[in-house]
Here is the input.
Amino acid sequence: MLKTAEDIKILSGKIAEASSFVDRLKEEVSHIIVGQAHMLDRLLIGLLSNGHVLLEGVPGLAKTLTIKSLATAIQANFSRIQFTPDLLPADVIGTLIYNQQQNDFVVRKGPIFANFILADEINRAPAKVQSALLEAMQERQVTIGDKTYRLEEPFLVLATQNPLEQEGTYALPEAQVDRFIMKVIVRYPEMQEEQLILRSNVQSVKMPEIKPVVTVSDVLHARDLVRDIYLDEKVERYILDIVFATRYPGRYELKKLEPLIAYGASPRGSINLALAGKARAFLNKRAFVMPEDVKSIVHDVLRHRIGLTYEVEAENINVENIIDEILSKVNVP
Here is the structure.
């Protein structure tokens, strides 16, 4: 952990140099994607903090296009898996097939062997497929037959969910949901942004192509620097207070939330708040985490980690309101 002002000054110089690729990346992706700056920032935070991201939004909000454009701009391997009820684990991770010429079984690797995995409509896959994906997400490895294969870094699962259609879907297990560093709500663009989207899609001019502007080694180097970003003990305590308030609201003058919260955020909530805060500081070219970094990403990190009781529906309250209430009571350093 950094302790001196000189250490932070040296790291600031390294971050200023290493983070220059972020501007190039955003500029290149903006040639195709209009708006959705919040979603792109969250994808970058997930990438820099080595965490997976769950995107929830109605169809047509450029979720797939954004992820594919990001992978192309980074010169990374991209793989899209359309999750359906009849999908099998072998369709995701791969399987052993018999080779008659070799008179032996050989491994045919599945689409999971890529840097960026788009798990489209992940909640349409049954439990067996979810568990197969779980090992890859958590352990960064895949077991086929009696052999285990390490997945190439960076490895990022970007899963999408459609919040409207619930028929033919399977609720994601809590253990798997908790492994996503963030759950990001993708919203509609503003009217001015949608006007630009409309024009670019109906004109006769060919859409521009995304060019590689960043290398995988740039991303991995930046990820190492993110780990070195200074997290002061006061900011650590702020993170812990927020997470503990989701578990024991009565300790933070939030007794009215006790009947509304079934369970609070796990220790992964604390870890991911710290990592995401460091990644946001890096995007802002800082060598230290500020409370504002934590407040900026707390909804995305915690909204899928707080379980609500049935009384919430009667009170017409959602998880966003509960997080807002917690932030209003926890002291900011």
Notes: The chain has a mean pLDDT of 86. The longest helix spans residues 267-283.
